[in-house]
Write a structure and sequence with these properties.
- By secondary structure, this protein is mostly helical.
- Helix content is about 60%, strand content about 0%.
- Helix 2 runs antiparallel to helix 4.
Length: about 170
């Protein structure tokens, strides 16, 4: 058992080492600092407005990025509309009537194009949108809700009860 665990760990470690050397591209927060320094604010202002109108839009925008990356990597292919000869991911069964926020992405893209025409890729817009969505809804809020739920379930009398065995 220990030998198979060691072999599995070694294979995973080797795979990760191999993969890290195969790509020289690095995602950095300052990638657009010279070519489009306003990109984060251009995205963030639209995200904040959308989240203030509908709180769950933050999660929907994050989910769009996840669904995009799930199929063939983070390439913004989820944003492609269907044509007579092409069926995109947007209307694919797992996303149809499920993935939402495309209208917000369109507004973000227009805003980014206004400040930096032809500079920022759609894939990067989705990634920055996901980041700004998390910031807009703030993890702190979710931690507070979680603690509220946990403490409301807490019963001091149950603490002294014996733990059941299965």
């Amino acid at each position: 058992m220990a030998a198979s665990t060691t072999i599995t760990f070694a294979l995973i470690a080797c795979t990760l080492c191999f993969m890290s050397g195969t790509s020289l591209a690095r995602l950095t927060p300052n990638f657009y600092s010279k070519t489009c320094p306003q990109v984060f604010e251009a995205v963030g202002s639209v995200v904040r407005a959308a989240v203030s109108r509908e709180r769950r839009m933050g999660a929907s925008l994050l989910r769009l990025h996840f669904h995009d990356c799930f199929v063939n990597g983070c390439d913004a292919s989820i944003l492609l509309d269907d044509t007579p000869t092409f069926r995109g991911e947007k209307t694919a069964a797992p996303n149809n009537n499920s993935a939402r926020g495309f209208d917000v992405i369109d507004m973000i893209k227009s805003n980014v194009e206004r400040v930096c025409p032809g500079v920022v890729s759609c894939a990067d817009i989705l990634a920055i949108t996901a980041f700004k969505s998390v910031v807009a809804v703030s993890i702190t809020e979710y931690i507070l809700v979680l603690f509220t739920i946990l403490f409301s379930m807490f019963n001091s009398e149950q603490v002294n009860q014996p733990v059941s065995s299965f």
